[in-house]
Amino acid sequence: MNRPNLWSEQKEILFEDNHLLIINKPAGLLVQGDATGDEPLSAKAEEYLRFKYKKPGAAFVGVAHRLDRPVSGVVALAKTSKALSRLNEMFRDNKVHKTYWALTGKCPEPTTGHLTHWLVKDPIRNTTKAYPERHSQGLKSELDYQVLGQAGSRWLLQVNPITGRPHQIRVQLSSGLGTPIVGDVKYGFLAPLPDVSIALHARQLEFQHPVTKEEMCFRAPLPEVAHWQAAEAYY
């Protein structure tokens, strides 16, 4: 039996133990299955675990959080139901510290700040609208951001979402700052990127291990594509 062409453990797999599987997700890959029927990250992870540990049946893979399909970066998967339950609780209670990097076409003003909006999801169009004031159907959404500097002709932002809403960073940067993410035509950028990704990368996750209670920090290298090359200077 040949190993499935899934991941090189030195590159896409950032960490693995008995309870966690931490992946650097490439842009374009779903985290969990949807109506498209495309193979998601969770299915690839199950196949990897079945092969690695020679499991005769299905391997357990639990999804505690998601990244949008065109977004790259670190995703934490659970290998046990105990880990999944505790991870779900930590994400729900905002006990996971998330750091994203984003490229924008212009420098936001001010260059550092805190954004608060009430987000309303349109499931038909798969878009989210941000309201600056309280909205009866909206979910309060908050993030902190700072400009790290210029990266070629773009600007590199570090974003730390406090809440975890669908499309939150994308719509808040676009609506709140007038700086849509490079390639994100859904939220106002003028042109797509060649690989149809957007320049948003889940750079780092920090949380307490759900079983051992050890403080963990996982950092995902940037994708090896042209639009991220200038940002590598900020490593």
From TrEMBL:
Please indicate which superkingdom the organism of origin belongs to: Bacteria
Q: Which Gene3D superfamilies match?
A: Pseudouridine synthase
Q: What Gene Ontology biological process does one annotation of this record name? A: pseudouridine synthesis
Q: Which family does this protein fall into?
A: Belongs to the pseudouridine synthase RluA family.
UniProt entry keywords in alphabetical sequence: Isomerase
Which Gene Ontology MF annotations are present? Answer: 23S rRNA pseudouridine(1911/1915/1917) synthase activity; RNA binding
Query: EC no.?
Result: 5.4.99.23
Q: What is this protein called?
A: 23S rRNA pseudouridine1911/1915/1917 synthase
Q: In the record, which residues are listed under signal peptide?
A: none
Q: Which residues form the Pseudouridine synthase RsuA/RluA-like domain?
A: 19-175
Q: Does the keyword Isomerase apply?
A: yes
Record Pfam families: PseudoU_synth_2
